[in-house]
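Memo to structure team: turn this sequence into structure tokens by end of day. - J.P.
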Amino acid sequence: MLIKKNANGFDHCIPSEITPQAIYQRRRDIIKLMATGTAGAALAGWAGREALAQTVPHPGKLAALSGIKSGVAGAVAMEKLTDYKDATSYNNFYEFGTDKADPARNAHTLATKPWSVAVEGMVKNPKTFTLEELLKLSPQEERIYRLRCVEGWSMVIPWVGYSLSALIKKVEPLGSAKYVEFITQADPKTMPYVGSRVLDWPYVEALRLDEAMHPLALLTFGMYGEVLPNQNGAPVRLVVPWKYGFKSGKSIVKIRFTDKEPRTAWNKAAANEYGFYSNVNPLVDHPRWSQATERRIGEDGLFAKRRKTLMFNGYEAQVGQLYAGMDLKKNF
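Reply from structure team:
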């Protein structure tokens, strides 16, 4: 690996195979292949490697948190990244207000140190983990995921974290455990909208155990090569890229294993609008929003042609088997 300084002075690592010399040599190799008429496949492979080799910009706002390149299938979306400013100023985090700009304006009051996450319920090894223990539990990886909101907008965000399954394996769920519940911080002293009538607090989300064990389900500590901003769920959150964004609980303080399907925050608020699964599905509309298309924040204007929504947000090849045989209109 090579250590370089970025424009903000932070150290970051790049794989040694993408040194300028290596890039020059690969380009020469492709030129040779073009001369023999066999360059098509090589060009495609080269384009993919070039995309993967792009360095995620570090905004220089918060402490650096680097991750190694992930080997998980589907972990790197080959799409333009959403600008950091957009990803940190256009948020749903109702503990800090219901307007998209409220979290960035109000979340400075959130106290993220010290922080711990209690893991309990149907597990052999219940434990309360400090944030420092969680950070060291498994190697941090960089994942570039599409994020799709149920409101019909989307982003592409580089996260830093590791598969939630690493933590799950550590605590060893009992054979009777079927679901994993995620309970988030609900402190009215530091989260000014906790106590409002919008939702039943604390905010609770949940996954089926096999969903939580899927390698794409990410226990997340950072984004854009830095620790999470408060408004994006600091210091630890969940990211489940094939589900609508509200399924990815922020500022998690408790993880509980159970044999019964948990009642989740939005499901309790409006069961006819928010099902337990909430997989991204262009064929099943929300009562207030079509899910057939979406608007990419920072790229698609309000009057621009909307892009088509992908089944499971583009992760069908990786997660479709989890729902084989299910009626996805009934189990929405």
